Automatic annotation (TrEMBL):
The keyword RNA-binding does not apply. This is Oxidoreductase. It comes from Georgenia yuyongxinii. Its cofactor is FAD. InterPro entries: Cbr1-like_FAD-bd_dom (IPR008333), FAD-bd_FR_type (IPR017927), FNR_nucleotide-bd (IPR039261), MRET (IPR050415), OxRdtase_FAD/NAD-bd (IPR001433), Riboflavin_synthase-like_b-brl (IPR017938). The keyword Transcription regulation does not apply. Keywords: 2Fe-2S, Iron, Iron-sulfur, Metal-binding. GO terms for molecular function: 2 iron, 2 sulfur cluster binding; oxidoreductase activity. Pfam families: FAD_binding_6, NAD_binding_1. SUPFAM superfamilies: Ferredoxin reductase-like, C-terminal NADP-linked domain, Riboflavin synthase domain-like. Residues 10-111 form the FAD-binding FR-type domain.
Length: 243
């Protein structure tokens, strides 16, 4: 990539907040309009910076939830009880505000090119980058599937994207299912992976995103089922958002 293009992506800009919408019991979707948006690849993220009047600044990274498109970009922010940035973004921010951001950033945990099947496996808010991939997939072709583990029905993120993906998505709830639930229940284990994900014989690219414990356990089970470690890419975050 040319140095000028890199500088452009890593330069802070002030984006207008177009919409703030409740996404789930603990998450909010932000629609932003950066004045100079270069476009993104599904799986990339943005840096968001809040700066107080006294100069104190706090910065966080958030996966991009929307598929590639001009003018607008969407983030889904999970509210953390002690998160100074997430509390502001989910409880204070309103349409018309300006938000400092830079990006898109990242080239490792992105939707693979080529015709190989792609298996996405998410725990909690780890589903956010996969929403971008599902939206992008609908505009193209290929075999892209998602296994998504959430605590309860009210914790689900991306209901619209999940519904539009038809049979390509399996959702499992780990802490109780509502009446009439027709999806899976229980934690992701070897038996569930073998039953609903792309088998290793088809040599899929596998992307796993979620809390550290979830990602490590799933990656271990995938290797045990016969998936080559080099075909598995992981993205993990702390201990929050567990399932």
């Amino acid at each position: 990539m040319a140095p000028a293009a890199v500088r452009r992506r890593l330069t802070w800009q002030r984006a207008e907040v177009v919409q703030v919408a409740r996404e789930s019991a603990r998450a909010t979707r932000l629609t932003l309009a950066p004045p100079d948006w270069p476009g993104h690849v599904p799986g990339q993220h943005l840096d968001v910076r809040l700066t107080a009047e006294d100069g104190y600044a706090a910065q966080r990274s958030y996966s991009i939830a929307s598929p590639p498109r001009p003018a607008y970009v969407e983030l889904v922010v999970e509210r953390l009880p002690d998160g100074e940035v997430s509390l502001y973004l989910t409880e204070v921010l309103v349409p018309g505000d300006l938000l400092e951001l830079r990006g898109p950033i990242g080239g490792y945990f992105v939707q693979p090119d080529g015709g190989a099947p792609v298996q996405l496996i998410a725990g909690g808010s780890g589903v956010v980058p996969f929403l971008s991939m599902l939206g992008h997939h609908r505009a193209g072709d290929g075999d892209v599937r998602l296994l998504y583990s959430a605590r309860t029905d009210v914790d689900l993120i991306g209901r619209a994207e999940l519904a539009q993906a038809d049979g390509a998505v399996h959702v499992t709830l780990t802490r109780g299912a509502p009446a009439g639930w027709s999806g899976l229940t229980g934690r992701v284990d070897a038996a569930m992976l073998a039953a609903v994900t792309v088998p290793p014989a088809r040599d899929p690219r596998v992307l796993v995103c979620g809390p550290t414990g979830f990602v490590e356990a799933v990656a271990r089970e995938l290797v045990g089922l016969g998936h080559p470690p080099e075909q598995i890419r992981t993205e993990r975050f702390g201990s929050t958002g567990g399932t």
